[in-house]
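Students often ask why inverse folding is considered easier than folding. One informal answer: many sequences map to the same fold, so there is more than one right answer. In these notes we will look at a single instance of the problem. The structure comes first.
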């Protein structure tokens, strides 16, 4: 079936019966609405356990009734971190504090370095309150405690777009700064050290994130959306997605393929197909050198070309040419 399907496109063998069979057997690719233009929100906290998070230090982290709770553990502080690192994103956190306390939302924290923190403090100690950004000193100061729900839930939106960091607390912007020190890192929560914070409980009921696309990525995503309309299974294809993040679209590799997109009979191939035995050579036009991490299993010989990169990477076509 697969071979027929390919012949269909390459080819000149298309007969009406094949076209009809194509529809009934369902090889014709489903045509659907393209995926939404905005990246979607993903919850980092699942409401039931700490999957996706890891603690450092000795604070106590629990989940009760859908709420993540951090508190000192026999006077010991600590932090809770996402397993993954994030670079450009909007992060939305809904939280509440039991005072006296000192906590914060960490973001872009590389391992073994502090990164940035959106402080969860009251004004008494430092003259600044929730919504302030700290990174080895205050990068911004929010002194307006009237916009803080000291004893109730707050929602903070943290935007990290390149060097620009913007904090919006309960709908009020509290920081808009430029800082180049940390481009990427973990997100986390803090339980601060200090006997006077012994009663503190930092509670989080929602923590969700969506990526902010670079211009190159947004442009590649716009091109890919035209292809995803029919090539639905490629929306999750690893080679497509890792390259889309780099601004390399389907069209970068296969050409704009306008005739292919517009051909209702599906007889016109895309502008560029890469024969399986030429894949390694093609990929090497951008990946001239591959790190040692990549076991280049069978180098070319006089008789055989180099093994196709797609045999190990992604879910693009795997069979050799007919
Ligand atoms: C209107 C539907 C439609 C759109 C839009 C579309 N394709 Fe296709 N494409 C098909 C069909 C149908 C096939 C044949 C089935 C298959 O090989 O999986 C195909 C096959 C292909 C193939 C394999 C060709 C071969 O010889 O094996 C490539 C590569 C391809 N498309 C790339 C693209 C790219 C790149 C875009 C966007 C620029 C795109 N397509 C947009 C319907 C479409
Ligand atoms: C980084 C370059 C690159 C990108 C990006 C890329 N492709 Fe491909 N594509 C290839 C190569 C190389 C092959 C041939 C693979 C092989 O023979 O192992 C291929 C093969 C295909 C095939 C034929 C596979 C089959 O099963 O018949 C389709 C269909 C296809 N690509 C569609 C797409 C679509 C749609 C996109 C974007 C959503 C896309 N490709 C993005 C390089 C790329
Ligand atoms: C138009 C240029 C271009 C082409 C063609 C291209 N790549 Fe890439 N690829 C990139 C860039 C840029 C990156 C990101 C930087 C890097 O990791 O080298 C990347 C990253 C990757 C990564 C690493 C992804 C990660 O998460 O670290 C893999 C694997 C990869 N490419 C495989 C391939 C394969 C296989 C092909 C051939 C089908 C291919 N590339 C063709 C530009 C290209
Ligand atoms: C025999 C399997 C295999 C083949 C063939 C292969 N790779 Fe890889 N490659 C890997 C593995 C395993 C890794 C490391 C884990 C990972 O990042 O997926 C890797 C990593 C990579 C990376 C990211 C590592 C880095 O930092 O540089 C790139 C880019 C890459 N490969 C490109 C290619 C290209 C281009 C080809 C074809 C010329 C190719 N690979 C052929 C298995 C393979």
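Output (designed amino acids):
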């Amino acid at each position: 079936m697969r071979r027929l399907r390919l012949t269909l496109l390459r080819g000149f063998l298309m007969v009406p019966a094949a076209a009809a069979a194509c529809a009934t057997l369902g090889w014709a690719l489903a045509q659907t609405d393209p995926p939404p233009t905005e990246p979607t929100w993903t919850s980092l906290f699942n409401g039931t356990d700490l999957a996706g998070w890891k603690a450092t230090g000795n604070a106590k982290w629990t989940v009760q009734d859908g709420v993540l709770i951090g508190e000192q553990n026999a006077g010991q502080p600590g932090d809770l971190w996402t397993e993954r690192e994030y670079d450009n994103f909007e992060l939305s956190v809904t939280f509440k504090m039991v005072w006296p306390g000192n906590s914060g939302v960490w973001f872009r924290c590389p391992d073994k370095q502090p990164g940035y923190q959106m402080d969860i403090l009251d004004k008494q100690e430092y003259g600044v309150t929730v919504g302030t950004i700290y990174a080895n000193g205050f990068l911004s100061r929010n002194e307006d405690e009237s916009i803080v729900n000291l004893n109730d839930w707050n929602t903070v939106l943290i935007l990290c777009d390149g060097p620009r960091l913007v904090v919006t607390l309960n709908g009020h912007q509290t920081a808009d700064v430029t800082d180049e020190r940390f481009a990427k890192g973990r997100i986390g929560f803090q339980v601060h050290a200090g006997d006077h914070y012994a009663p503190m409980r930092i509670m989080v009921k929602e923590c969700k994130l969506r990526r902010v696309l670079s211009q190159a990525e947004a442009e590649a995503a716009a091109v890919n959306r035209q292809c995803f309309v029919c090539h639905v299974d490629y929306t999750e294809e690893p080679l497509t997605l890792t390259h889309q993040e780099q601004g390399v679209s389907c069209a970068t590799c296969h050409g704009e393929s306008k005739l292919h997109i517009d051909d209702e009979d599906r007889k016109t191939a895309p502008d560029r197909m890469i024969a399986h035995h030429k894949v390694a050579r093609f990929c090497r036009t951008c990946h001239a050198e591959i790190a040692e991490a990549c076991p280049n299993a069978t180098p070319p010989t006089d008789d055989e070309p180099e093994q196709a990169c797609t045999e190990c990477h992604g879910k693009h076509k795997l069979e050799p040419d007919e």
